[in-house]
Specification:
The structure holds two protein chains of two kinds.
Chain A (H helix, E strand, L loop, with lengths): L1 H25 L8 E6 L3 H6 L10 E5 L5 E6 L5 E3 L2 E3 L4 E5 L4 E6 L7 E7 L5 H24 L1
Chain B lengths: L1 H24 L5 E8 L4 E4 L4 E3 L7 E7 L6 H16 L6 E7 L7 H9 L6 E4 L2 H11 L3 E6 L2 E6 L3 E4 L4 E6 L5 H13 L1
Parallel strand pairs in B: 4-5, 5-6
Antiparallel strand pairs in B: 1-10, 2-3, 2-6, 4-9, 7-8, 9-10
Helix pairs in contact in B: 2-5
Classes of the chains: A alpha/beta, B alpha+beta.
């Protein structure tokens, strides 16, 4: 009975690992939109002036060519902001498409560090690239969530 | 009657495909501001010996960059790229004006800017002024410039993008550093068509 249970568990594990790997290797990578949207909410400046720490953007923004490769910034606040690579007026948006895999550093007043890095990954084409991309994305998501909750 | 219906449907499909293709082709490769705002005007000393006022270039597409003549990595690449784009534009080049404002007014006199820019393209115009004037212009455009001392010498870490300003004087787009001349030509042709 115990032997049967172990065998069953082992086979279940193998099937789960194989199914997950196959999905990670072959399922198409999809995003709802090619745009990664970041907004400065209304009242951010006022909150800062009141001494509250407001984090709007992660220090690193990760994009993927051909899938999720457009940075869309919106300033919904009442004052101009240096946001990402540029000065944006209230109500203005800035849409920046990327066509080359690269690391881009921009000055950004929306950050305590004053700097923002946009990492553009190449489009994963082959199965092993898709697996690597999913693992990397999962790691980054967890890392961002942890650093945000720590802050 | 049925044939007419199918013909009309086919024509509509064809037109929508063409329209879709064109709207994709007409997308700028640079980062686009929406809505665009008037590019802040400035009055500086031009490397051509005259006053340099942005608004005097209404009717032309202006490429506005910030840099300095002692820059060893970013500026020479950007200016070489702009020069290449200028050549590729051929007859349209006369409708485009490159303005390059110094972030190092201490060393970059209009004469020095003229000599430096002429090495890339004699039509490029540089702009200089007092440290306060240049700082005010940088602030209007969200451009950063940070001086780093190295003994007697110094370098300036500065924003590396260039702005694209349309014929009406609206700040339309921002081209990040690293784009090729073809991308500039692509975007400039779109702006020139308007």
């Amino acid at each position: 009975m115990s032997m049967n249970f172990r065998n069953c568990a082992r086979w279940t594990l193998i099937v789960v690992v194989l199914a997950t790997s196959s999905w990670a290797a072959f399922a198409p990578i999809k995003f709802e939109s090619r745009e990664a949207l970041f907004e400065i909410p209304k009242g951010t400046f006022a909150q800062r002036m009141a001494g509250n720490k407001v984090e709007i953007l992660p220090n690193h923004v990760y994009l993927t060519l051909g899938i999720h490769d457009v940075l869309l910034l919106k300033n919904l606040d009442d004052v101009p902001q240096i946001f990402g690579p540029t000065l944006m007026m209230p109500g203005q948006s800035f849409r920046l498409p990327f066509e080359v895999a690269s690391d881009n550093q921009f000055a950004c007043s929306a950050h305590a560090s004053g700097q923002m890095t946009i990492v553009v990954d190449p489009r994963p084409e082959w199965p092993w690239q898709k697996i690597a991309w999913r693992i990397r994305t999962l790691y980054r998501t967890i890392h961002i969530k942890l650093s945000t909750s720590a802050a | 009657m049925k044939l007419f219906y199918w013909l009309r449907l086919s024509l509509l499909c064809l037109l929508s495909t063409v329209a879709g293709y064109n709207s994709q082709a007409d997308e700028l490769k640079a980062g686009v501001f929406s809505p665009s705002r008037p590019a802040p005007d400035f009055l500086l000393k031009g490397s051509n010996g005259s006053d340099l006022k942005l608004s005097q270039y209404r009717g032309k597409v202006v490429i506005l960059g910030f840099g300095y003549t002692s820059c060893t990595n970013v500026c020479p690449i950007t200016l070489a790229m702009l020069s290449q784009a200028n050549q590729q534009l051929d007859t349209l080049a006369s409708q485009v004006q490159v303005l390059y404002l110094t972030v190092d007014p201490q060393r970059d006199s209009p004469a020095r800017l003229k000599e430096y820019l002429a090495a890339f393209n004699p039509s490029f115009i540089g702009g200089s002024g007092t440290a306060e004037q240049m700082a005010a212009v940088r602030k209007l455009y969200g451009v950063t410039a940070e001086k780093h001392d190295f003994g007697k010498d110094y370098v300036i870490a500065h924003s590396s993008f260039v702005y694209l300003i349309d014929r009406t004087g609206a700040l339309r787009a921002l081209m990040p550093f690293g784009h090729k001349a073809d991308d500039y030509v692509h975007d400039l042709k779109i702006l020139l068509k308007e």
